[in-house]
Amino acid sequence: MKRPIKAALVLVGLGLTAALLANATAWLIDRPQARLDRSIQSIRRDLSRQGRLIGLLTFDEPVPREWATGAQVLAPGTVCVPARFGSGRAFDGRERTHIDTSLRWPALGSNYTVALWLTVRPGSRTQDILCGSGGNRLTGFRLVDGDMTFDVPADERPAVAYPFRRYREEVCLAATVNWEQRRVVLYEDGTPMASNTIHAVNWQHLNISFGKPVWS
Question: Is 154 within the bounds of a domain?
Fold first, then answer.
């Protein structure tokens, strides 16, 4: 049974500088609404041209949307709740409580980073977080028997995992996949927790979703 989580998502290709997002945030906050709207549109165009930021969901809006494109997402059963930075989305653990986006996993390519902030409440050692599956291939974050797990899509399932302990705390999870170095590394608050060798990145044509394993 899935348990409630709060999450925010950043999907980036390798090479995107943190300064881009940090400067953009400060720039947006200081502007009046009309200029803010124009600034958002300009940043979206710039991100699209650079082709490095695939998706960004802050969950600060009452109705969630994919920030870089402005597209709304489906979020049945989730609610907006206070988080450490702004707002988050709370999941009540039901099967039909999830978030679906129009973002596609294959858009990440073979060198990519997936990062999210979340709070996991105790009571369940297995839950879908940000993941997808198709055929025999899994991808993304899951809590499996108490281990925080990240899968790279491939037939041999090159997963990385570590025992998760920080229930009730807001933590940042990140996973980097580098096909050129044949390596996947899983981080918790910037600390490497597990790594593995990869031999392939074979995507299925699935949309990125929170709280359920398969796009349907």
Answer: yes
> Counting beta carbons within 10 angstroms of the beta carbon of residue 135, is it exposed (0 to 12), middle (13 to 18) or buried (19 or more)?
exposed
Distance CA 143, CA 152 (A): 15
Residue 165: exposed, middle, or buried by beta-carbon count in 10 A (0-12, 13-18, 19+)? Answer: exposed
The answer to whether residues 65 and 54 touch, using CB atoms and an 8 Å cutoff, is: no
Q: How many helices (H) and strands (E) does the chain have?
A: 2, 16
Q: pLDDT tens, 66-81?
A: 877 778 888 888 888 8
Query: What domain count does the chain have?
Result: 1
> Domain for residue 64, yes or no?
yes
Q: Which structural domain, as residue segments, surrounds residue 162?
A: 5-16+52-210
- H runs (alpha helix) in the chain: 18-29, 33-50
Q: What's 21-71 look like in SS3?
A: HHHHHHHHHCCCHHHHHHHHHHHHHHHHHHCCEEEEECCCCCCCEECCCCE
Tally of residues, the chain: 216
Ranges of the chain with pLDDT below 50: 1-31, 215-216
51-62, pLDDT tens digit by residue? 567 788 888 778
Kindly state the tokens that stand for 129.
């977080």
CATH number for the domain spanning 12: value is 2.60.120.200
Question: What is the spatial distance between Cα 64 and Cα 111, in angstroms, rounded to a whole number?
Answer: 27
